[in-house]
């Protein structure tokens, strides 16, 4: 039972990233009808927002410490972060230690601006173009963004450690007689993902803005005839989808060190998640993300990889084939979506 619960947690961990990226992809497709192959790049940019904030917080100046001597007896030069000189050593060190959670606040406006510029500057010109054109242009944009990150940050992964208070392991299941040690940060990532997904659904379901957006997704022309500027609202939704992908990347940094190709690594799998869940279905994208994450976790066990070598690399695609053969619209897909 311990092993089963452990693999479920591993699946929820990976599935959280799939679900968040797939949720943003589906929001963009459902509102704008655009197949956005640059969405994985937004996940990558979010991860590098945390890297950038950590570098900014660690900016320092040199001072001479007469109490410390080198081997020649000369006073040593020590580097002191500006943040520590402004707020004091203890508060400054705490701020630096919590740079990844603080990067959430840093990344939100950046991702909103990136999403707005991307939609207004490029994607709006492809609304009425074939999906093949949308895929080509957004895939090209993803490569450009990837190379920009590589140029400024290098090709090697950059470590973004979790805060010391959240970098250990926690005992899970003690109340029911289980003894499972699991990294605290991964549990935080799962909880954060569920909170973000719940917030997105609540925003769409219970706010006036969200209700208008859902109406526009169902019948764009009728909403426009009512005098509502639905295009502006859809542009805002593109920015929100970019922010969701970015925040997923921010919090994923301590799990997998940010690198310039991490967006591409998640992009293809996330599109498979969207297709399995059903094109245009937000609940389907989230459900498929968690289900496929759990299946991938069980397929990565020693027993599975020994019995069927390489099964962990292909399990998601096998499930996608089976689902599409039995349910061509996906698990929760709707009639008429990408069927014209």
From TrEMBL:
GO terms for biological process: amino acid transport. It holds the Pfam family BPD_transp_2. It comes from the Bacteria. GO terms for cellular component: plasma membrane. It is found in: Cell membrane. Keywords: Amino-acid transport, Cell membrane, Membrane, Transmembrane, Transmembrane helix, Transport. Its main location: membrane. InterPro entries: ABC_transp_permease, BCAA_transport_permease. GO terms for molecular function: transmembrane transporter activity. The chain crosses the membrane at residues 16-35, 42-61, 95-114, 135-153, 165-182, 189-213, 233-254, 266-295, 307-325. The keyword Membrane applies. It is a multi-pass membrane protein. Belongs to the binding-protein-dependent transport system permease family. LivHM subfamily. This is ABC transporter permease. It comes from Pseudooceanicola atlanticus. The lineage of its organism: Bacteria, Pseudomonadati, Pseudomonadota, Alphaproteobacteria, Rhodobacterales.
């Amino acid at each position: 039972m311990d092993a089963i619960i452990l693999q479920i947690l591993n699946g929820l961990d990976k599935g959280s990233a799939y679900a968040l990226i797939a949720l943003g992809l589906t929001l963009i497709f459902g509102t704008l009808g655009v197949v956005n192959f640059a969405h994985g790049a937004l996940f990558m940019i979010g991860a590098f927002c945390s890297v950038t904030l950590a570098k900014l917080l660690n900016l320092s100046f040199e001072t001479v410490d007469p109490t410390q001597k080198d081997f020649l007896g000369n006073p040593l030069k020590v580097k002191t972060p500006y943040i520590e000189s402004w707020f004091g050593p203890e508060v400054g060190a705490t701020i630096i230690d919590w740079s990844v959670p603080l990067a959430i606040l840093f990344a939100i406006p950046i991702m909103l601006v990136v999403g707005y510029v991307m939609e207004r500057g490029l994607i709006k010109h492809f609304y009425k173009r074939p999906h093949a054109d949308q895929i080509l242009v957004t895939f090209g944009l993803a490569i450009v963004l990837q190379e920009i990150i590589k140029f400024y940050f290098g090709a090697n992964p950059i470590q973004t450690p979790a805060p010391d208070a959240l970098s250990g392991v926690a005992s899970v299941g003690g109340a029911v007689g289980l003894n499972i040690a699991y990294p605290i940060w991964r549990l935080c990532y799962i909880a954060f993902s569920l909170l973000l997904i719940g917030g997105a659904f609540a925003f769409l379901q219970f706010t006036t803005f969200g209700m208008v957006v859902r109406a526009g997704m169902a019948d764009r022309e009728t909403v426009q005839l009512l005098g509502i500027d639905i295009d502006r609202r859809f542009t805002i939704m593109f920015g929100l989808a970019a922010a969701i992908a970015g925040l997923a990347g921010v919090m994923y940094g301590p799990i997998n060190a940010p690198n310039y190709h991490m967006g591409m690594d998640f992009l293809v799998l996330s599109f498979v998640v969207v297709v399995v869940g059903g094109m245009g279905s937000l609940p389907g994208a989230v459900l498929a993300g968690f289900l496929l994450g759990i299946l991938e976790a069980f397929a990565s066990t020693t027993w599975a990889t020994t019995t069927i070598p390489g099964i962990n690399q292909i399990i998601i695609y096998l499930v996608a084939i089976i689902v599409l053969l039995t349910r061509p619209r996906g698990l929760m897909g709707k009639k008429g979506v990408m069927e014209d």
